[in-house]
């Protein structure tokens, strides 16, 4: 049997089923695709594909739909990823370039990726943002309470109210602030632990207990940025595709909301020669996503942070792969600037 033609028939079945959600028959394939063979030949090819487990019949008299194995063969045949349209590229650059800080960049990224793919989009916060300390302020509030404010090089404002035993007066607080700021300014957010000890040594002995507490609070604010976080958008798209799942979508929604499963899955995902990774259905068998597909890639320094989409196996893989890769590249560029 002609193997290339058989794979061409498989690709036609995948394309038709993805767009129609209806089982595909040989007559429809011949009518819609320039296969250059008769319906009888296509039926023979479909029989061979079914025997190989690439397609299946959902009903006794129905056409055929792709299986996970069939989707995998289809995805592996995608030699190159088509670029986004000019309008899509303008939408990405216009939305992301105008973001004012990291939080806004991440929120816009996940929303944009969901809109481009019509799937649930997930974006992991950068593992290492390269952010440094721009400014530190200490503001006395009620007796014994000090507001610690840390402003990053990307304009983010992090703050926490700290209970300080024997809090210094305004003059003492200004001295502590100066000492902490001198040590912390320009330091990476994730490397502020040593700031506490140096800041304490920089102030007079009477202020050192308060300085230790406040400098430690600054370090904690920076260390908190190491927490692995995911942003998610587009769960409504998943809800609209319930008919594509053999089981309830509840476990998938739970996995997305709890984040632990997704963070573990994303950490395991590399990327292929096309710059993306695709996990289809049962390839996610060890997770609640065994009924779904995940298209993801890395971004940022060493591609250590991940972004991607989650949706049914009946997914427009070429378009989704293109959008995921393009958004990741734009996000990497913005974070590098």
UniProtKB/TrEMBL annotation:
Domain Heat-inducible transcription repressor HrcA C-terminal residue range list: 103-321
InterPro entries in UniProt: GAF-like_dom_sf (IPR029016), HrcA (IPR002571), HrcA_C (IPR021153), WH-like_DNA-bd_sf (IPR036388), WH_DNA-bd_sf (IPR036390), WHTH_transcript_rep_HrcA_IDD (IPR023120)
Gene3D superfamilies on file: 3.30.450.40, Heat-inducible transcription repressor hrca homolog, domain 3, Winged helix-like DNA-binding domain superfamily/Winged helix DNA-binding domain
Entries under SUPFAM superfamilies matching the protein: GAF domain-like (SSF55781), Winged helix' DNA-binding domain (SSF46785)
Example GO BP: negative regulation of DNA-templated transcription
UniProt KW keywords: Repressor, Stress response, Transcription, Transcription regulation
UniProt GO MF annotations: DNA binding
Assigned protein family: Belongs to the HrcA family.
Job of this protein: Negative regulator of class I heat shock genes (grpE-dnaK-dnaJ and groELS operons). Prevents heat-shock induction of these operons.
PANTHER family the record matches: HEAT-INDUCIBLE TRANSCRIPTION REPRESSOR HRCA
Protein name: Heat-inducible transcription repressor HrcA
Source organism: Rothia santali
């Amino acid at each position: 049997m002609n193997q290339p033609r058989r794979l061409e028939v498989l690709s036609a079945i995948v394309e038709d089923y993805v767009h129609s959600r209806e089982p595909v028959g040989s007559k429809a394939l011949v009518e819609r695709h320039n296969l250059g063979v008769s319906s009888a030949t296509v039926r023979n090819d479909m029989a061979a594909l079914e025997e190989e487990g690439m397609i299946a019949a959902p009903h006794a008299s129905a056409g055929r739909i792709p299986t996970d194995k069939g989707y995998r063969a289809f995805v592996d045949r995608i030699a190159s990823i088509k670029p986004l349209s000019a309008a899509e590229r303008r939408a990405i650059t216009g939305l992301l370039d105008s973001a004012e800080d990291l939080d806004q960049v991440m929120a816009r990224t996940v929303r944009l990726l969901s809109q481009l793919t019509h799937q649930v989009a997930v974006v992991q916060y950068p593992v290492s943002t390269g952010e440094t300390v721009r400014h530190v302020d200490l503001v006395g509030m009620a007796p014994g309470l000090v507001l610690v404010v840390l402003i990053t090089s990307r304009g983010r404002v992090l703050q926490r109210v700290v209970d300080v035993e024997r809090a210094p007066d305004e003059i003492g607080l200004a001295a502590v602030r100066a000492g902490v700021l001198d040590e912390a300014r320009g330091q990476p957010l994730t490397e502020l632990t040593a700031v506490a000890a140096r800041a304490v040594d920089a102030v007079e002995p009477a202020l050192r207990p308060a300085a230790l507490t406040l400098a430690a609070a600054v370090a904690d604010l920076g260390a908190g940025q190491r927490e692995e976080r995911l942003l998610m958008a587009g769960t409504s798209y998943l809800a609209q595709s319930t008919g594509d799942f053999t089981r309830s979508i509840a476990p998938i929604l739970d996995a997305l909301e709890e984040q632990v499963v997704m963070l573990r899955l994303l950490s395991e995902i590399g990327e292929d020669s096309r710059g993306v990774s695709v996990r289809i259905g049962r390839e996610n068998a060890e997770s609640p996503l065994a009924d779904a597909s995940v298209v993801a890639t890395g971004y940022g320094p060493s591609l250590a942070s991940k972004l991607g989409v989650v949706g049914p196996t009946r997914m427009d893989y070429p378009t989704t792969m293109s959008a995921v890769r393009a958004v990741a590249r734009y996000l990497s560029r913005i974070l590098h600037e």
